[in-house]
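Subgroup meeting minutes
Present: P.N., E.W., G.H.
Scribe: E.W.

1. P.N. recapped why we're keeping a running log of single-chain structure predictions: easier to compare across weeks, and new members can see raw inputs and outputs side by side.
2. G.H. added today's entry (370 aa).
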Amino acid sequence: MPIGVFAQRSGLTPSALRFYADSGLLPPAEVDPVTGYRHYSTEQVARATVLRRLREIAMPLAGVEAVLAAEGEDAVRLLDEHVAKVVGDAAEARRKAAVIKSALGGDVPGPTIAVLKGPVFADAVEQVLTATAREASMPVLAGLRIEVSQEAVTLTATDRYRLATRTLVPAEPPRRAWSGTVDGDGLRAAVAEIRRSPVVRLEAVPHGVWFRMPGREHQYCGVLTEEFPDHRLLLASLGEATTRATLPKDLFLRALEEHPGDRVALHITPERVEVGDHAPIPATATGRPLRIWFGLTTLYPAVSTAIGPDVMLDLRGDDQPVTVRSADRGDLTTLIMPVKAGRETRTPHDDAPRSDHGRHRQSRRSGPGR
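Output recorded in log:
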């Protein structure tokens, strides 16, 4: 096929194809000796597509050549090494940017909004960040909402199908109320340093938050400007639980891990919980028996991040948000949306929540059950 057709098939521009031909990465199958026109074969489309994708992740030409020449595990290893370098370079760029901000006056101390124990704050951030999502239409879902009051510091995240919130007791009484949605990627990069500090002081500045740690490198995270979903309205509007079940976390997780499908049915009775076809799990349940379905990728993280040996489920029917929390500690709470029974699903994002009420249809835009 001529170079123009091949460019359309491969996603590479004609000029890029000429460059890769001259570099030896993708020579044409034939070159007309009279006109000099280049022609490519159908078999070269796959190689060209891989080449384009490797360049899209900023792999240098030498790396591209090595990956294309390698096979199987060697190619995967080279790709992993490149990604690790890109991630490391990004983290180094973030650190250098913080130094530059300081030199430009961007590291001017801001008012202290909270003082927390570093390891406790780091654990809470990692737990709650599991409920974030990357959506181009709602970039705020990739952030972590931090709310500081006179009594507590609350962390919240949601992917619209799951909402996680954790309440922390500050090491010192907060000096002022504050709220903001902090960039999730920045927090993930800062957590390792925060975890190693006995105390972390949060300072609010115009476009972000500084995490100050004695004797350690301070960390900066930007604040997202988009409005965060009104999770407080959701929590306040939840109805009373009609079924409550408490069961061992480790047995529950094991049953979910061994479940073969991408959605799972829970059958809750007074003395046990059945997870699909798995052996029944001993449980303590009150209220009416209930059968309810969940997407596995929504239910599993909600259970795995619970604190303590037992998990408590507060259920309000098979079409209402379910509260998942630790039976012995209530400072980490997760809400999850059930899915419809009776049909296959691919992921919870492909499966509509049970929506007999209009407000649950709206939840697909702004939060679980909203």
